[in-house]
Specification:
Length: 152
């Protein structure tokens, strides 16, 4: 794994940080087929992966500073983007971002409120397997049938 960071305008009015990084898996890793339920052991159906990697970028920027404050308090924005090859990764793309409000109230200078969003891109190789739905559907159906028979 490698990461580079550049902090700019740290003593200025609107400081920010940019990070760029990535990782590379060397050697053979065995991918388990979706739905196998196996997390550690190598099954006969596992697929050897010779290499895997991902890259990412992160931005954190103050866009408005609380007047009269020496420390970087105010409104900030942040964003993160991560991507890797579709064939080897369950999540091949991820992005999140948002806005932060810090030190906005004089009597609560250390409080921070953040609002954000996230998007997770699921690899096309696993769209056919809906693990959550496949695992929860029988339990939901049993609960529904149980409550329906009690009402009658």
């Amino acid at each position: 794994m490698v990461e580079g960071s550049y902090k700019y305008a740290q003593k200025g009015r609107l400081p920010g940080t940019l990070k760029i990084g990535g990782w590379n898996q060397l050697g053979t890793l065995h991918e388990q087929p979706p739905g196998s339920g196996v997390t550690v052991a190598i099954t006969p159906n596992s697929v050897p992966i010779e290499t895997d990697w991902a890259v990412y970028a992160i931005v954190d920027q103050l866009v408005w500073r609380v007047p009269g404050r020496k420390d970087p308090k105010g409104i900030g924005v942040f964003a993160r983007v991560i991507g890797g090859p579709t064939e080897e990764n369950l999540v091949d793309f991820y992005a999140d971002g948002g806005v932060t409000f810090s030190g906005m109230f004089p009597h609560r200078p250390d409080d921070t409120l953040a609002a954000g969003f996230a998007y997770t891109g699921i690899s096309n190789d696993v769209h056919g397997f809906n693990g959550t739905q496949d695992l929860l559907a029988p339990a939901t159906l049993r609960r529904f049938l149980r409550s329906a028979t009690r009402r009658s």
